[in-house]
């Protein structure tokens, strides 16, 4: 496997793991376990940071004049990263709302 393909798979793996983890965070929040939800969000952020570092390396490589091949795999990796980032942002908001719902239920 060449270096570019390896980096592409790092992007896919890190962002995919992060997306799975934010959905675990949402499940924990729905179960009323906000501490666990926050831990999962932290783990997801770490995965997204790792993926973003790889993406930045690829952008810098191309910016320095080393033209990268735009393959279907590269497009898939970028799509994975962007949807994972969006999922994290939306799920953080959903967790906040779930916490509000949980507090309202507990104050009845």
Task: Describe the protein.
The protein has 108 residues and is an all-alpha fold. The protein has one domain: Methane Monooxygenase Hydroxylase, Chain G, domain 1 (Up-down Bundle), CATH 1.20.58.80. It has helices spanning 3-30, 34-63, 72-106. Helix 1 packs parallel to helix 3 (72-106) and helix 2 packs antiparallel against helix 3. It starts with a helix and ends with a helix.
Quick summary:
The chain is mainly alpha-helical and 108 residues long.
Largest sheet: none
CATH architecture: Up-down Bundle
Order of helices and strands: HHH
CATH H-tier superfamily: Phosphotransferase system, lactose/cellobiose-type IIA subunit
Termini distance?
Answer: 59 Å
The total of helices stands at 3
Within the CATH hierarchy, at the fold level, what is the topology? Answer: Methane Monooxygenase Hydroxylase, Chain G, domain 1
General shape:
elongated
């Amino acid at each position: 496997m060449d270096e570019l393909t390896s980096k592409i798979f790092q992007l896919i793996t890190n962002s995919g793991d992060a997306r799975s983890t934010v959905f675990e965070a949402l499940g924990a929040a729905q179960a009323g376990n906000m501490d666990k939800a926050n831990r999962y969000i932290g783990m997801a952020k770490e995965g997204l940071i790792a993926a973003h570092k790889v993406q930045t390396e690829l952008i810098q490589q191309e910016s320095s004049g080393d033209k990268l091949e735009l393959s279907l795999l590269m497009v898939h990796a970028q799509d994975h990263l962007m949807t994972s980032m969006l999922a994290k942002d939306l799920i953080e908001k959903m967790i906040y709302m779930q916490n509000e719902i949980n507090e309202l239920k507990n104050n009845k």
